[in-house]
């Protein structure tokens, strides 16, 4: 369970901010969100403005419990209910047909809506005190690294956010898994905190999962989750040599050092030892990227973990951190 520092007074205050059309930084088990009243188009519009996010890029509606699903979505298939029952509260987002309560501003004009119940006591307390749905993208500027502490939110958004609830560091560390549940057979649109293996165990049949590089969610861009430093991906056995080569060329290199090479002590500006456990790696990932930026690195050399379990979501975020930036 995450360390909880927000008080009941804080939560009441944050619920008041939402009612007044303001924006709240809120902790979830995945990353911090930038929340607004889902039914207030002006507040939703402010999210896009503060994030610098294109209005065609749809948001997730956070709700307090699976029993509220039919308030927000229509024609919910049995498979979606099964997944909601198993994984909510938790890092799973279901894309369903949009119900009339959801303004088109929140869905980027789509007739579908993304919904999830976050597994964080502060988020759940806020949703309960507020009573409605809260649209919340990750609380970072568009394209940059998602925040996993309240300090990240304050540092990145400052006064643009009316109130930040501090719920401690996010436990999971990568965003929710987004599943398109509108059809007969669900499919993964974005890998995340719930693994494909866990979803398939509940469904009893395999999901079609596109290769991570092919995953397309409306409004997504090749470069996302990007630190200021350029990210270069190489094979694990080449990480040390590539880091030293770039350092010798005058770069300030940050290295994600795989544990198999933990003894190598590469000549680089900063070294992050990559945890063996994918749970620990996901938990730390965005913080590692931020830390290397903070330490003034201009180039980060990393490799991809095996793309199974949580490794699939980690590899997806690393690929996109390394993606071409001109299109953003
Ligand atoms: O863990 C998370 O999901 C975090 C926390 C705050 O809940 N939120 C998050 O939101 O990652 P954001 O806005 O950074 O990413 C939401 C993703 C976007 O890539 C968007 O394209 C997709 O959800 N999405 C939203 N509505 C959709 C829809 N109707 N159809 C397909 N994709 C959708
Ligand atoms: Mg995001």
UniProtKB/TrEMBL annotation:
The keyword Nucleotidyltransferase applies. SUPFAM superfamilies: YrdC/RibB. InterPro entries: DHBP_synth_RibB-like_a/b_dom (IPR017945), Sua5-like_dom (IPR006070), Sua5/YwlC_C (IPR038385), Sua5_C (IPR005145), T(6)A37_SUA5 (IPR010923), TC-AMP_synthase_SUA5 (IPR050156). Keywords: ATP-binding, Cytoplasm, Nucleotide-binding, Nucleotidyltransferase, Transferase, tRNA processing. Residues 8-194 form the YrdC-like domain. Its EC number is 2.7.7.87. It comes from the Bacteria. Its main location: cytoplasm. GO terms for molecular function: L-threonylcarbamoyladenylate synthase. It is found in: Cytoplasm. It catalyses: L-threonine + hydrogencarbonate + ATP = L-threonylcarbamoyladenylate + diphosphate + H2O. It is an enzyme of class 2 (transferase). Required for the formation of a threonylcarbamoyl group on adenosine at position 37 (t(6)A37) in tRNAs that read codons beginning with adenine. Belongs to the SUA5 family. This is Threonylcarbamoyl-AMP synthase. It comes from Streptomyces gilvifuscus.
């Amino acid at each position: 369970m995450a360390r909880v520092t927000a008080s009941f007074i804080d939560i009441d205050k944050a619920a008041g901010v939402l009612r007044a059309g303001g924006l709240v930084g809120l902790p979830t088990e995945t990353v911090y969100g930038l929340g607004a009243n889902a039914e207030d188009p002006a507040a939703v519009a402010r999210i896009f403005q503060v994030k610098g996010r294109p209005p065609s890029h749809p948001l997730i509606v956070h709700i307090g419990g699976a029993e509220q699903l039919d308030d927000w979505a229509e024609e919910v298939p049995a498979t979606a209910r099964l997944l909601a029952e198993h994984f909510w509260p938790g890092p799973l987002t279901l894309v369903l047909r949009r119900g009339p309560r959801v303004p088109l501003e929140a869905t980027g004009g789509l007739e579908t809506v993304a919904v999830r119940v976050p597994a964080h006591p502060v988020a759940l307390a806020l949703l309960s005190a507020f009573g409605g749905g809260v649209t919340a993208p990750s609380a970072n500027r568009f394209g940059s690294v998602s925040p996993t502490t309240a300090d990240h939110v304050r540092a990145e958004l400052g006064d643009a956010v009316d109130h930040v609830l501090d719920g401690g560091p996010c436990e999971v560390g990568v965003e929710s898994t987004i599943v398109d549940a509108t059809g007969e057979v669900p499919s993964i649109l974005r890998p995340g905190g719930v693994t494909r293996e866990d979803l398939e165990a509940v469904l009893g049949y395999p999901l079609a999962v596109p290769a991570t590089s092919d995953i397309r969610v409306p409004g997504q861009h090749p470069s996302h989750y990007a630190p200021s430093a350029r990210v270069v991906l190489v094979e694990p056995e080449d990480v040390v040599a590539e880091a030293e080569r770039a350092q010798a060329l005058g770069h300030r290199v940050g290295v994600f050092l795989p544990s198999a090479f933990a003894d190598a002590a590469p000549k680089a500006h900063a070294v992050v030892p990559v945890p063996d456990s994918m749970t620990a790696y996901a938990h730390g990932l965005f913080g590692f990227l931020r830390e290397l930026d903070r330490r003034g690195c201009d180039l980060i050399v990393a490799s991809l973990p095996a793309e199974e379990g949580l490794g699939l979501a980690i590899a997806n975020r690393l690929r996109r951190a390394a993606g071409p930036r001109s299109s953003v």
